[in-house]
Amino acid sequence: MNERDAIHDGTVYANSDILKTANVSKLLLSGKSLEQLLLEDHREVAKADENNVWYHKKISRESAESILQEGLQKQGDMSGLFLIRDSTVSSNDFALSLVCKGKIFHFQVQQTCECFYRIDDGPIIHGLDKLVTHYTGMANGLPTKLSSFCRGSIPPSTCRKFGPNNLLHRAVLEGKKDVVKRILAYSTCPDVNAKNKIGSLALHDAAFHGYYEIVAQLLDRGADVKIKDTNGHTALHRACVANQPRVVELLIKKGRSVTSERCSQTGWVPLHEAAMRGHINCIKVLLENDATPFPRNDDKLTPLDLAKTYGRRECINHFKNYEIHDMQTKQADWFHAELDRQGAMQMFEFHGMREGLFLIRPSKKHFGWHVLSLCHSRAAFNYEIRNQDYEGRLVHFIDDGPYLLSLEHVVYHYTRQMDGLPCMLTASLNSTQRVIEVIVPRAQTSDNSYPRPISQPDPPGLPPRPTDDLYSAPNKNNPTTPEPVTPPVPAGPIPNRKPADAEPQQTNLTMIPLSKIKRGSELGQGEYGSVLKGTLITHKGTFRSEKIDVALKTFHDGSVENANSFLAEARVMQSLQHACILSLLGVCEGPPLMLVEEYVPMGSMLDFLLDHEEKIDVKTDLYLWAAQIANGMKYLETQRLVHRDLAARNILLKDMKQIKISDFGLSRAVGTESDYYKATHGGRWPIKWYAPESVNYGQFSHASDVWSYGVTLWEMFTFGEPPYGEMKGIEVVQYIEHGKRLLKPDRCPQTAYGIMLKCWSWKAEHRPQFLDLAKHFDEDPEYASIHDLLRQASRRE
Ligand code: AMP
Q: Is 645 among the catalytic positions?
């Protein structure tokens, strides 16, 4: 691509001025030594920069004042004497120290974005050099305009807009790699990152013209890939503008160029440049090197949008067929389905607010969205991860950041680049609060140290801005009635996994071959298919085999939305071992896909309550079952599992002395059943068993399981009556909100009803814990015999 093309695109790289004076090679041929040329060049550059040596690096306010005092003594009492120094307060800012009528004033020169500066409410100016020029021309709010300066040095290239052309700039534009190599070898070589008269670095020009070897040499000498030209372009942008795929690869691999670096004027990343121009090979290189496929510019347009606008067919197809690769990160390491903002904060505090520590949790404000909680500068920041449909895919994004194709993709992206966050994600907390270090191959990271805050983080020390705090901050109109949101799809138990469970792949899920299973009669109809009685043939030693009764829960084709997540939940079930929890013996791939469970001869407790009321003694049987359920749930709590579907229908009776809690873990992968409220997102909800926070915010916890436990107790003491009778789900929600609760069943002792009422406390923290409930049953003399029965039951297992 030539210069005219660049201009045609609106990207002006007018180097003709430099080229006129260039020809370093000719000068060399004419007999001048390179050493001589470099010395001459050095003098010329210094002369051209004579008016730019007002920079005094990192000196204190007091040092600045004594330098200015000294200057005043030398030059006489004059207004407008100044110097510029690094800000002592903020690393990207500067300070202007200025004399006016014998007094010294100090002004913060604030960086508004990379290489753009302003003083107070004054104009935003590109480059410190241009800011000085501006205030030399007019005071514009300062007590006086700048007139002369105390001599220091020239400011760093990163903060100036232009600079004088030097020998290196000229040699690079000629494309003579040998001459460039020789220049770079001299100690008198110009600053490799110096800007030229049009604000370009040598690297920018080398990248634009595709001078591969020169780019490599410049990188070796410390050329900074982050510095932008006057168009706001990095070298990588330039290589993409000019269709230089080899250089693109070199800049990424050798120079660790950041593919997500945005043009300061337009928000375009290099991929936008390539897509708009139809430079398919650059696009391929960028995507192969981990560029995120759907970044958005300041107009919220992706490269695909631009490719469409400009009719770049090949590029469009490439983006549309983009397949997400293995993200090398898994939800078990950072996803917390139950956690709220405060919980996240507590976890972070426990781990010393380690920089870059993060986790992801569901948003309480918007169903289906998530929140990235991140530690930075010893404060917690919360970023909302939204999602929406884009080109037929569900994409996730933080503020105006890139569209990412999954939560894993979000984590993958921000573990490699800040891209607007205050820091990169460096370590996650899993649900057992274990810190999982993020391991990123060095070549894939970048500290892209020009953060672009997309969700303005709170200053350290202040409590973070709420993003999802409906739960802790009820809505203004009604402080006690939080705004209901779309109910979430039940997500099944969330394993707060211990190290062994943290990697589901490593948990041995017993796969049972179909040949070892004999299918028998139907026991009942489950939510997902029929439940059959079956026989499992197990081998004991070489010759002996044993047949055991099993229940086979079959899954009809199409009912398992996600076989993988179904198997993950099965793994969780299999890891549980307790007398009061139904055992999963294994999974048979079938077809049909089956869960092989321990057989529980008396079937569902709800059916038994309904069918055999006369056989049930309130004081012995119901109390025993209530105690056993509390103990089973207490065990789940120690395993940090939330059941989410505790109800009489999901309790099985092995015999009159032993219940089994079943049906946890599957409600997300599959499911329809009449007790489930149909949520807009396709799930069904047992809303009458749900705590208010579960209904309103999709918040599930051990405390919400306690609410459901109270409803289960009510079912038991009414011998299977449907809770809330004919009331509809929404009526139940209002009934609860008005402080009303299920009435005391006729045959229910007051103590048991008292426990139910406590379970239905509006505030989760006022409800008893399973630990308390189990203790209560254990310690209450009324239940003394139950305690023994429980122990016997445990021994029988
Ligand atoms: P579910 O899909 O769990 O609702 O099961 C439907 C019905 O199948 C239950 O109401 C029970 O009667 C029966 N059932 C389920 N699991 C078992 C089991 N492990 N042992 C015996 N019967 C079962």
A: yes
CB 266, CB 230: distance < 8 Å: no
Catalytic site residue from 129, 419, 501, 645: 645
Q: Which of 434-438, 454-458, 610-614, 664-668 has the lowest mean pLDDT?
A: 454-458
- The pTM for the full model equals 0.54
Residue 584, class by beta-carbon neighbours within 10 Å (0-12 exposed, 13-18 middle, 19+ buried)? buried
Q: Specify the ligand 1 atom closest to the Cα of 606.
A: 10
Other CB atoms closer than 10 Å to residue 472's CB: what's the count? Answer: 12
Pocket flag, ligand 1, residue 554 (CB < 6 Å): no
In tens, the pLDDT along 117-171 reads 998 878 889 999 999 999 999 998 899 999 999 999 999 988 999 999 999 999 9
Which segment of 72-76, 80-84, 163-167 scores lowest on mean pLDDT? 72-76
Q: Can you say whether the dihedral through the CA atoms of 680, 683, 686, 692 is positive or negative?
A: negative
Q: Residue 190: how many CA atoms within 13 Å on its side-chain side?
A: 29
Give the Å distances, CA to CA, from 227 to 12, 133, 200, 233, 439.
17, 22, 9, 8, 28
CA 313/CA 318 separation, integer angstroms: 9
Nearest CA to ligand 1 atom 1: 526
User: Is ligand 1 within 6 A of the CB of residue 407?
Assistant: no
Is residue 603 lining ligand 1, measured as CB closer than 6 Å?
Answer: yes
CA 169 to chain centre: 42
Across the beta sheet with 584-588, what order do the strands follow?
A: 517-525, 530-540, 544-555, 593-598, 584-588
Provide the sign of the torsion angle of the four alpha carbons 221, 222, 223, 225, taken in this order. Answer: positive
Burial class (CB in 10 A: 0-12, 13-18, 19+), 668: buried
Whether the pLDDT of residue 544 is over 70: the answer is no
Tokens 């649900």 label which residue?
A: 431
DSSP designation for 727: -
C-alpha 706/C-alpha 421 separation (Å) is 38
Helix axes 770-779, 702-717, angle to 10 degrees: 40
| Prior bond of 591 cis (ω within 30°) | yes
Query: What is d(CA 419, CA 258) in angstroms, rounded to the nearest whole number?
Result: 9
